[in-house]
Amino acid sequence: GTSQQHVANDYAKRLAIGHKEAEKVVAESIACMVSPKPGCASLATNIQQCPLLNITNCPPTEADLSSGKKLMVVIYNSLGWKRSDVIRL
What we know:
InterPro entries: Gal_mutarotase_sf_dom (IPR011013), Glyco_hydro_38_cen_sf (IPR037094), Glyco_hydro_57/38_cen_sf (IPR028995), Glyco_hydro_b (IPR013780), Glycosyl_Hydrlase_38 (IPR050843). This protein is mainly alpha-helical and 89 residues long. 43% of the residues lie in helices and 0% in strands. It contains two helices and no strands. It is extended. The relative contact order is 0.08.
Protein backbone atom coordinates (compact mmCIF):
# COMPACT_ATOMS: atom_id res chain seq x y z
CA GLY A 1 0.00 0.00 0.00
CA THR A 2 0.86 3.62 0.33
CA SER A 3 1.16 3.87 4.12
CA GLN A 4 4.44 4.64 5.78
CA GLN A 5 6.18 1.74 7.51
CA HIS A 6 5.64 3.06 11.04
CA VAL A 7 1.89 3.33 10.33
CA ALA A 8 1.79 -0.27 9.08
CA ASN A 9 3.79 -1.40 12.13
CA ASP A 10 1.39 0.39 14.49
CA TYR A 11 -1.60 -1.19 12.75
CA ALA A 12 -0.06 -4.67 13.01
CA LYS A 13 0.69 -4.08 16.70
CA ARG A 14 -2.89 -3.00 17.39
CA LEU A 15 -4.26 -6.05 15.55
CA ALA A 16 -1.99 -8.34 17.58
CA ILE A 17 -3.11 -6.74 20.86
CA GLY A 18 -6.78 -7.10 19.88
CA HIS A 19 -6.27 -10.72 18.87
CA LYS A 20 -4.57 -11.52 22.17
CA GLU A 21 -7.38 -9.89 24.16
CA ALA A 22 -10.01 -11.80 22.19
CA GLU A 23 -8.35 -15.20 22.79
CA LYS A 24 -9.84 -15.55 26.29
CA VAL A 25 -13.36 -14.73 25.11
CA VAL A 26 -13.07 -17.17 22.22
CA ALA A 27 -11.68 -19.89 24.51
CA GLU A 28 -14.55 -19.41 26.97
CA SER A 29 -17.11 -19.54 24.16
CA ILE A 30 -15.64 -22.71 22.68
CA ALA A 31 -15.49 -24.33 26.13
CA CYS A 32 -19.20 -23.65 26.60
CA MET A 33 -20.04 -25.08 23.17
CA VAL A 34 -17.95 -28.20 23.72
CA SER A 35 -19.10 -28.84 27.29
CA PRO A 36 -22.26 -26.81 28.04
CA LYS A 37 -22.44 -27.03 31.82
CA PRO A 38 -22.90 -24.46 34.56
CA GLY A 39 -19.59 -22.67 34.98
CA CYS A 40 -18.32 -23.94 31.64
CA ALA A 41 -16.10 -20.87 31.31
CA SER A 42 -13.77 -22.44 33.87
CA LEU A 43 -12.77 -24.99 31.22
CA ALA A 44 -11.36 -22.23 29.04
CA THR A 45 -7.94 -22.57 30.62
CA ASN A 46 -7.57 -25.90 28.81
CA ILE A 47 -8.36 -24.43 25.40
CA GLN A 48 -5.41 -22.83 23.67
CA GLN A 49 -5.07 -21.40 20.19
CA CYS A 50 -2.29 -22.14 17.74
CA PRO A 51 -1.61 -18.84 15.98
CA LEU A 52 1.29 -20.10 13.84
CA LEU A 53 -0.78 -22.23 11.49
CA ASN A 54 1.23 -21.35 8.43
CA ILE A 55 4.36 -23.05 9.79
CA THR A 56 2.73 -26.12 11.34
CA ASN A 57 3.86 -25.25 14.84
CA CYS A 58 1.64 -25.56 17.88
CA PRO A 59 3.52 -25.80 21.19
CA PRO A 60 0.39 -26.65 23.27
CA THR A 61 -0.21 -29.80 21.20
CA GLU A 62 3.42 -30.86 21.44
CA ALA A 63 3.35 -30.53 25.24
CA ASP A 64 0.07 -32.47 25.61
CA LEU A 65 0.95 -35.28 23.23
CA SER A 66 4.45 -35.79 24.62
CA SER A 67 3.06 -36.16 28.15
CA GLY A 68 0.38 -38.65 27.04
CA LYS A 69 -2.59 -36.32 27.58
CA LYS A 70 -5.67 -36.39 25.38
CA LEU A 71 -5.95 -33.71 22.75
CA MET A 72 -9.19 -32.18 21.51
CA VAL A 73 -9.03 -30.29 18.22
CA VAL A 74 -11.70 -27.71 17.42
CA ILE A 75 -11.85 -26.56 13.82
CA TYR A 76 -14.24 -23.87 12.70
CA ASN A 77 -15.12 -22.18 9.46
CA SER A 78 -15.13 -18.40 9.81
CA LEU A 79 -16.28 -17.89 6.24
CA GLY A 80 -19.86 -17.20 5.28
CA TRP A 81 -20.08 -20.26 3.03
CA LYS A 82 -19.48 -24.00 3.17
CA ARG A 83 -16.00 -25.27 2.50
CA SER A 84 -14.35 -28.63 2.27
CA ASP A 85 -10.71 -29.11 3.23
CA VAL A 86 -8.44 -31.92 4.28
CA ILE A 87 -7.25 -31.52 7.86
CA ARG A 88 -4.02 -33.34 8.63
CA LEU A 89 -2.90 -33.81 12.23
